[in-house]
Amino acid sequence: MRNESPATSTTRIVKRLLLVVVGMFGFGFAMVPLYDVICDITGLNGKTSSRYAQAEPVPVEDRKITVQFMAQNSEGMSWYFEPNDAQVTVSPGEVKVVSYKARNSNGFAMVGQAIPSVAPNEAAQYLMKLECFCFQEQPLAAGEEVDMTIRFFVDENIPEKITKLTLSYSLFDITDYEISGDEITAR
Amino acid sequence: MSALHDDHHHGPAKGLTRWFYTTNHKDIGSLYLWFSFAMFLLGGTFAMVIRAELFQPGLQLVEPNFFNQMTTMHGLVMVFGAIMPAFVGLANWLIPMMIGAPDMALPRMNNWSFWILPFAFAMLTATLFMDAGAPNFGWTFYAPLSTTYAPDTVTFFIFAVHLMGASSIMGSINIIATVLNMRAPGMTLMKMPLFVWTWLITAYLLIAVMPVLAGVVTMMLFDIHFGTSFFNAAGGGDPVLFQHVFWFFGHPEVYIMILPAFGVVSAIIPTFARKRLFGYDSMVYATASIAFLSFIVWAHHMFTVGMPIAGELFFMYATMLIAVPTGVKVFNWVATMFRGSMTFETPMLFAIAFVVLFTMGGFTGLMLAITPADFQYHDTYFVVAHFHYVLVPGAVFSIMAATYYWLPKWTGHMYDERLGKLHFWLSFIGVNVLFFPQHFLGLAGMPRRIPDYALQFADFNWISSIGGFLFGASQLILLVVVIKCVKGGKKATAQVWEGAQGLEWTLDSPAPYHTFTTPPDPKLIHAQ
Description:
The complex is a heterodimer.
Chain A: H1 6-42, E1 65-73, E2 80-83, E3 87-90, E4 96-103, E5 110-119, E6 127-132, E7 138-140, E8 145-154, E9 164-173, E10 179-180, E11 183-184
Parallel strand pairs in A: 1-9
Antiparallel strand pairs in A: 1-3, 2-4, 4-8, 5-7, 5-9, 6-8, 10-11
Chain B: H1 17-21, H2 25-53, H3 64-99, H4 107-126, H5 154-181, H6 194-225, H7 239-256, H8 259-273, H9 280-293, H10 309-321, H11 323-337, H12 346-369, H13 371-377, H14 381-411, H15 417-443, H16 458-487
Helix pairs in contact in B: 2-3, 2-4, 2-16, 3-5, 3-14, 4-5, 5-6, 6-7, 6-8, 6-9, 8-11, 8-12, 8-14, 9-11, 11-12, 12-14, 12-15, 14-15, 14-16, 15-16
C-alpha cells in the first residue's frame, strides 16, 4: 500500500478475490464427482458400483453368507415389482443368478430404472455384480411382464463379521425423462 | 481514489435520488440497516403466524402447506434479509470510521450490492401471492423436496438466492479491500478494533461459501428445468449429496452470522466495564480458529443420514473442538468485566445478555454434537431452541446492542434510555419465555416444522407462544426509539460514552457526511 497507489492495489485484491469466488463456485460442482468417487471407493451410502464388476470370483467354501433381496416402488411408480427369491445363501466367490419380476399393468408403455442399495453400507463394495438389470433402463410395453436377472458373487475379502447382507432396489418411473443416447427428451 | 478531491465539504444530495445514487458508506450503511429492520419485522410476522398456529394443538388458523411456507420464509428472510444485511450495514457505517478511512474501497459497487437486495426479496416474497404458493420446503431446502416435489415458484427462490449471494460476495470483496488497503497510517492489523477483525474473517468466509450456495441452487435449477440428475436417484444422482453441498455452505454460514456479533460485544463490554478488552490477541486467533473449524464440521447436521462410524466420530470431535476457541472468547468477555467499573446502559445490558444466552445456546450445541444424543434430538424442537438461542439473543441482541451503542454517533442525539431499557427487559423476558420451553418440547420428542402436535405438548407450546407475542410486540419499541432518536433528543457529545475507545469517537456526533478525508493523527490510534 505504501509503495503503490491504493487504486492499483485495490484492483489486485479484487481480482484475487474474484478468482476465489470462481474457484469456490467450481468447487461446489467438483463436490459431485468427488462425492461419487468417495462413495465408490469406500462403499459408503450403500451404493454398489454402477459398472460391471471386473474382479475374478475366487471361491471360498468354508463361509456362508445370506443375501436377502428387497424391492420397493418409488412414489408414483405403479408396476408390480418383487424379487423371485426372498433370499439365497452363497459362499464367497460363488457366482449366483437371481431374478426380479416386473409387470407393467398399465394400458401404456413405461420406462423404469432400478437403483440399488446395500445394507450394511460397508458390504456394498464386496457385492460384485457381473450383470444387473439396474445397469439399463427397463422399457415395458402395456401389460408386459419380464424376469430381470442379476448375476453376482460376494468378494472373498468380505469382513468376517458380515454374515448377512440385503440388496434393495428402488424402482423409479423415468418415462418422462427417458434418456436416449445423449438426448434428453423432456415431457 | 480521486472521488475525494472535490466534495470535501459537501453534504448529502437532496431528495429521493440521494438514496438511489449514493456511494457514501454512511448512507449505504443506513440503507442496509433500515432494510434489515424491515425484513426483521416481515420475518417476525411470519414467526407470529407460526406461534399463533402452535398456540393450541390442532389446526386452527392456517393450512399445513401455508404453515410450511411460513417456516421456510421465516428462516430465509431472517437469515438472508435481517441478520446478514444488518451486519453489512454496521460494517459500512463503522469500518471506515474505525480504521480511519474516508469511505469503502469500492463505493459504487457498494451501492450496487445494496440495491440488489430489495429486488431479491421482492422476488422471494412475491411468491406468497402466486398460485403455487411460496417455497414450503424449509430454509435448508433439502432435495428432492425442493426439486421433484417443489412448488413451481421454486425458480423465483433460486434466483432470489443467486441475487442475495451476489450481493454478499460484492459486500465482502469491498470489506476485504477496505480493511487491507485503506487503513490509516499507524493502524496496523493487530491494532484494528475487534469488530473490524471479525468482519475481515467473516468476509473471507462469505467469499468461500456463498459461491458454493450459488452452485447448489444452480444444480437444483438444472435438475428442475434441464433434466439433469444431480439429486435425483432415478437418474443416478443422490439426495444426500445435496445435504453435503448445502451444509458445506451452511455451517460456515452460521459463523458468518455470529462472528461480527463477537466483534460488537468485544467493543461494548470494555466501554461499560471501563477496562481494556482482556486478551485482544487471543480474541483474534480464536476468531480465526472458529472460522477454520467451520469448514470441517458440516456433516454434524447430517448424523442421521447413515454415515459410517468413522465419519460420525470425526465430525463429533471436530464440532466439540469449536467449544475451545468459543470458550476463550466467553472467558475474555467475563475477564474484561471482572473488577471493572461497570454501568448498565442499554447497549451493555444487551451485550451481557448476549454473553449469557449465547453461551447457553453454545452448550445445547455441544449436546447436539454428541452423535448418539443427536439421533434423539435431530429434527425436534430442541434443535429449534438451540439455534434460536444463538441467533436471537445471540446475533440479533448484538445487532440491537450495536444500534443503541452507535446510534448517538449516527444521529447526534442520545436515545431515550428509559424506552431502551424497557425494550431490553421485555425482549429479554420474551425471548426466554419463547425459546426456553422449546428445549423441553424437543427433549420430549416434538418434531419441528409440523403445524399440529400431540396434546402432551400443549402447555409448553402455550407458554412459548405467549413469549413469542411478547417478544414480537416489544420490537416495535425499538422502532419508536430509533425514530425518536433520529428526530431529536439530548445532544450527544463526540465521546458519547465515557469509556469508549476507538477512532469513531474522535469524530463529531453526528459523524460528518465525509470523515477522515485526511488520515487521523497516528497518536489517536490506541493499541487495543
